[in-house]
Amino acid sequence: MSQASAAAAIATPEAAPRRLRSSFLLPVLSGIGGLLLWELAVHAFALPSYLLPAPSEVMVVMVEKWRLLLDQLQYTALAAVVGFVIALVISIVLGALIAASPAVERVIYVWLVVFHAIPKVVVAPLLLVWIGFGLQSSIIFVVVFTFFPMLVNTVTGLRSADPELLLVTRSMGGTTWQTLRAIRLPSAMPSIIAGIKISITLAPLGAVIGEFVASNKGLGHMLIQSVGSLEVPTAFAAVVVVSILGILTWYLAEWLERVAIPWHASQRGRAAE
Known about the structure:
The chain crosses the membrane at residues 24-52, 72-100, 107-133, 139-158, 191-214, 234-253. Keywords: Cell membrane, Membrane, Transmembrane, Transmembrane helix, Transport. The protein is an all-alpha fold and 273 residues long. It has 2 domains: 1-46, no CATH class; 50-271, Orthogonal Bundle (MetI-like fold), CATH 1.10.3720.10. It has helices at residues 3-10, 15-44, 55-64, 66-100, 102-117, 120-130, 135-159, 163-171, 176-200, 202-214, 219-228, 232-260, 265-271. It is globular. 30% of the residues are buried. Residues 1-11 have low confidence and may be disordered.
């Protein structure tokens, strides 16, 4: 089939319902089927709610405590957003410095790898001592969780620029900043966006773990308290809300990818599906 006939087939009216089914209906049906199996398993094995509540019970709790969940979600989302933005700025600036200067890489990169290798849960009590109790600790935890994948992808992307284009730019007297802005950064965008997609779903996780040890608000604090008092349906409700936040951030990254790099092969291929 030629490219023209393939494009015509994609543009037919029958193609739109197929795309809708594959992108929306099938995931929804899969989720509903999983919830039904969960509900049936709880009732079939007569599991008590303090071990595994049924989805219907979790839904009832979410309806009854929606104001509390929303209030705690705002606190967690604020920590996740602020921490992620800080991590994004740090990763792009450091990535540009490392990609531009081998000396900077030799001095900084090894320490960044060592810092990333330290288990984050081990650092949590130290952050409580160094930074204190409250929102700032959750923000720092989000930064710690999210900046390294974005840094690695930024460095990889900035170094993947076409050497011939770099040579032409230098031969025409282009400065390091001009080369970075005109050549390296555009070619690095797919890699940077991939790092953002990896890290953005870690932002709510970092915020929740920070709230485990250094906060008296947020979904993480609510989760710990609910488990401690054996209010497991409430704990599941908090987990569901955190999961929804993670899903929304993922689709936000997907939208950013479509807007930022519509010219990339991955986006052209997606448009043709």
